[in-house]
Amino acid sequence: HALEHDLRGALESNQFHLVFQPQVRLASSELTGFEALLRWKHPSRGLVSPAEFIPIAEENGLIVPIGEWVLRTACASAASWPDVTVAVNLSPVQFRSRGLVTLVTSALAEAGLPPQRLELEVTETALLDDSEATIGILHQLRALGVRVSLDDFGVGYSSLSYLRKFPFDRIKIDRSFVGTLGESPESVAIVRTIASLGSVLGVETTAEGVETEAQLAFVRECGCTAVQGYYFGKPCPAADVGRTIETLK
Ligand code: G
Ligand code: G
Ligand code: MN
Ligand code: NA
């Protein structure tokens, strides 16, 4: 696989960078943080989507050093921001590798970032296999003081037992539901149900992929507590985060 070959040298050649997408609390319309999203600028192909290269990196294990770079870089960036959080995606493969808790500890310390300002986004695929070990790691991460979110909720298995086994701080409702609120009563019912579940459990619920004013009104009405999506901002380079904070504050 040509892409796999190129991926092996990408970290050394500084071909990765992060972009940051605003996350907004609905009650106060206040910016609370940014999700860090990985970008690969391939020397000849241009930007390659993480949807394309992350599965390859997960298969060959490169996601471990790449994920370490993402975490350290995101924490270092966030340390220069005023009091807002940075959310970092963790691959299930990173849970199976050794030393995740040590890595998070050292990334925070090196950056001088308070743990409360780091949020880790975990998909339920991370919880599927070996769930006892994974739950143990999640508890250790939580004990550091970082927050933990359940990402892409509603697609995949969406087992409610995950919500019982581990006290997530946030459920992120997959954007496929938000995108179909206008035409699908099923999506409305699902978003409403996840939001009320969150409310009862004391867990924040973020609606992902909010692009329009109508969708914003809809997810507010459904009871979601936070939003993320193009309506409030597309992912922006680190250099523009300061301006985005000024605009949204
Ligand atoms: O940014 P974009 O929508 O193109 O991301 C596509 C997918 O890649 C999403 O599922 C997103 O969670 C994932 N992704 C983006 N950045 C990272 C990262 O740093 N680590 C991991 N594991 N996944 C990421
Ligand atoms: O799986 P995860 O939620 O981490 O993926 C986030 C991805 O969703 C990013 O790649 C980001 O570019 C994309 N995204 C964020 N907001 C929107 C939006 O409003 N509309 C669409 N279509 N994609 C979005
Ligand atoms: Mn995410
Ligand atoms: Na998501």
Annotate the secondary structure layout.
Elements: H1 2-10, E1 16-25, E2 30-42, E3 46-48, H2 50-60, H3 63-78, E4 85-90, H4 92-96, H5 100-111, E5 118-123, H6 125-128, H7 131-144, E6 147-153, H8 161-165, E7 170-173, H9 175-178, H10 185-201, E8 204-208, H11 213-222, E9 226-228, E10 236-237, H12 241-248
Parallel strand pairs: 2-4, 4-5, 5-6, 6-7, 7-8, 8-9
Antiparallel strand pairs: 1-2, 1-9, 1-10, 2-3
Protein name: Diguanylate cyclase/phosphodiesterase
Domain EAL: 1-249
Mind explaining what this structure looks like?
By secondary structure, the protein is an alpha/beta fold. It has a single domain, classed as EAL domain (TIM Barrel), CATH 3.20.20. It contains twelve helices and ten strands. It has helices spanning 2-10, 50-60, 63-78, 92-96, 100-111, 125-128, 131-144, 161-165, 175-178, 185-201, 213-222, 241-248; strands spanning 16-25, 30-42, 46-48, 85-90, 118-123, 147-153, 170-173, 204-208, 226-228, 236-237. The chain has an eight-stranded mixed barrel with strand order 1-2-4-5-6-7-8-9, surrounded by five helices. α3 runs parallel beside α5 (100-111), α5 packs parallel to α7 (131-144) and α10 (185-201) crosses α11 (213-222). The longest helix has 17 residues, at 185-201. The model has no long low-confidence stretch (mean pLDDT 95). The structure holds guanosine-5'-monophosphate (2 copies), manganese (II) ion and sodium ion (NA). Residues 21, 37, 89, 151-152, 175, 208-211, 229-230, 235 line the site of one guanosine-5'-monophosphate.
